[in-house]
Specification:
Residues 66-168 form the Cytochrome oxidase subunit II copper A binding domain. This is Cytochrome C oxidase subunit II. Keywords: Copper, Membrane, Metal-binding, Transmembrane, Transmembrane helix. It is a single chain. The protein has 174 residues and is of the alpha+beta class. It has helices at 5-32, 159-168; strands at residues 60-63, 69-76, 79-81, 84-88, 92-99, 104-108, 113-117, 123-128, 133-138, 151-157. Strands 1, 2, 3, 5 and 8 form a five-stranded mixed sheet that branches. Strands 4-10-9 form a three-stranded mixed sheet, covered by helices on one side. The longest helix is centred in the N-terminal third of the chain and has 28 residues, at 5-32.
């Protein structure tokens, strides 16, 4: 069987490009600390309302001792709960999500926030939001007929405004 020199050349170029992409992806993951989730936390989705962490009165934002904020949310047909959040800018924020029913996705446009929320597991994202304003939080994983109506709103305010709201008891935290 004869393979033309030109075909060998283009096959080599194609394999070289594919190899280059693999090296770039692996190198980027290594140098930027990108890795698969390793701290897999499970939870009983049928008993969320009885759990300490995701009970209804514990949802929302909570200020931690180190001034970071932890946000606990529940995704269920067809909404994210709580529906509206106010959070501080320039502050480390940890979002923790669970699902009541089916697979959901969460995406906040113009930020680095995007993850899947799988029933039986806790999804966690660490971020810091730098720009004040109103951000939608959308479900990006089809979850049923009401999927298009599944959203929440996040208001990012300055640190000073956040502190004033906390002093007056206006901030929504659990």
């Amino acid at each position: 069987m004869h393979i033309d020199q030109l075909e060998k050349k283009w096959a080599g170029i194609s394999l070289g490009i594919a190899g280059l992409f693999v090296v770039l992806i692996l190198g980027s993951a290594l140098f930027h600390g990108i890795h698969a989730p390793s701290n897999v936390e499970t939870i009983d989705s049928a008993r969320l309302h009885l759990s300490e962490e995701f009970a209804e009165d514990k949802l929302g934002a909570k200020i931690n001792a180190d001034s970071s904020v932890t946000v606990r949310m529940v995704a269920g047909r067809y909404g994210f709960y709580p529906k509206t959040l106010t959070l501080p800018a320039e502050t480390p924020i940890t979002f923790r999500w669970v699902s009541l029913d089916v697979i959901h996705g969460v995406h906040m446009p113009m930020t680095n926030m995007s993850t899947m929320i799988v029933p039986g597991y806790v999804a966690e994202i660490h971020t810091e939001l730098h720009h004040t304003g109103e951000y939608p939080m959308l479900c990006n994983e089809y979850c049923g007929m009401g999927h298009a109506h599944m959203w929440s709103k996040v208001n990012i305010v300055s640190k000073a405004q956040w502190q004033d709201m906390n002093k007056q008891g206006e901030a929504n935290h659990g």
